Amino acid sequence: MLRVIVIGGSGATGKELLKELIASPKVASITSLGRRNVDDLQSEKLNQVIVDFEKLDDYKESFKGQEAAFCCLGTTKKQAGTAEKFRHIELDYSSAFSRLAKEANIEQMHLLTSQGANPNSWFLYMKTKGEIEEAMKRDTFKNLYIYRPGFLNRGATDRFGEKALSYLMSGIPVNTVARSMVKLFERQNEQTPSGVNVLYNKEIYKESK
C-alpha cells in the first residue's frame, strides 16, 4: 500500500486528484498540505495539514515515508495581487515542496504546469511554469512527470475569461488530468525507466484510461 503527499489540493485539479487518490485501492494514506482544509472531502486515508508556506521547512516530517509527491499548486496574478507575489507563490512554494520531497528521498514527482510552459517565455504565467519545471528537474527525481494540459475545463466553476480562452486552446477536463496522474502513479514498478516524462493532452487522455 502506497503513501503520497500533495500540494495544491484545494484547487480544481487538486481536489479531483484527492478524490482519485482516495478511491485508489493501492493508496493507503494521503497527506495534503494547504492553507485551508478541503471541507467536502472526508476519508480515513486523508490527512489534511494546515501549513504556512513561508515556513514549509517546519513541516518536513510530513514528507518522510512517502512514495510520491504531487504538485498542483496554482494561482493567478489577480489573486496574488502583483507579478512578484504571483512568482513567489508559484515558483518559490513549488520549489520548496520539491526540495523537501527530494530531501525525504521521494523518488516520484508529479507536476501540473501548462501547455506552453517555457522558462524563456515573455509571458509571466508561461515563464513561471517553465521555471518551476526546471527547478524540479534540478532536483533529479527518479521519475518526474510533467503534465502540460491545454485549457483546464472546470465545468460549472469556469470563470468568464476561462470560458473565452477555451475557444482558443484545446481543453481537457480537470478530472481527466487527475485520473491520469493517479493511473501513472499506480502503474509504477521496478522496471519503469527513470527520467523526465512530459505529457500533453493526447498523452494525458491515453494515461487516464
Automatic annotation (TrEMBL):
One of its GO terms (cellular component) is cytoplasm. Signal peptide: none annotated. Pfam families: NAD_binding_10. InterPro entries: NAD(P)-bd_dom, NAD(P)-bd_dom_sf. GO terms for biological process: import into nucleus. Residues 8-186 form the NAD(P)-binding domain. This is Putative transcription coactivator. It comes from Heterostelium pallidum (strain ATCC 26659 / Pp 5 / PN500) (Cellular slime mold).
